[in-house]
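Weekly structure sync - notes
Attendees: PM, LS, DV (DV joined late)
Agenda: review two folding runs queued last week.

Item 1: First target. Sequence and structure tokens pasted below for the record.
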Amino acid sequence: MELWIGRLVRLLVALAVAAGVLWVGDWAVLRARVSHGTAFGTVQVNQFLATPLKGSKMEYDYMGTVPVTCSRSIFPQQGNSACWWVERHKAQWE
């Protein structure tokens, strides 16, 4: 049993290190793109407003289409979502 626990701990440590290295690499690539002016993009997103009504009902209103700034990276960076994520989730609810 101790053998399996040791292997599991080593696997978890290796996964954590790999995730950290991937995030640092993503950050470094984004910094290089910032210096070239290609780090950020915009995606047109549909915004909706959910308003609660009486009787546990909801009203959904279309607010319009707005451009959203996103980072061209794997992870969200510098307060912006990743472009690949925003492009797949074009509906924003408020």
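Item 2: Second target, run right after the first with the same settings.
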Amino acid sequence: MNLANPNGSRLLVLAGGLVGAAGVALSAAAAHRGGAFTGPAASFLLMHAPVFLAIGLIGTNRWLRIASLVLLPGLLLFAGDLLARDFWGSRLFPMSAPIGGTLLIAGWLAIAISAVARPRP
């Protein structure tokens, strides 16, 4: 995604909507089907969906855009690994959840940096 491209904002809003919808669907699946990891994966999806919406709607700050580019793959790896454990009985690949979690932490730190970073001319 081009950081200066306004269509990138639309992609982030799309990502927020899809992530939110997946979180709701997986919350229902966790309530009806169970599974040790489906509920936490749904929670992570639901708590991050508003981030993509906010950055897509108001995020003109370069650090916020970078954060979204780090958060989305981190979220997909982390939640994807949890879901693979419940639905397939195996992990996505070794270290996928820790890599995803590390990317999530880095993304949130980029959001924090966006509050104090000087805007580029």
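Discussion on item 2: DSSP finds four helices and no strands in the chain.
Action: LS to circulate a short write-up before next sync.
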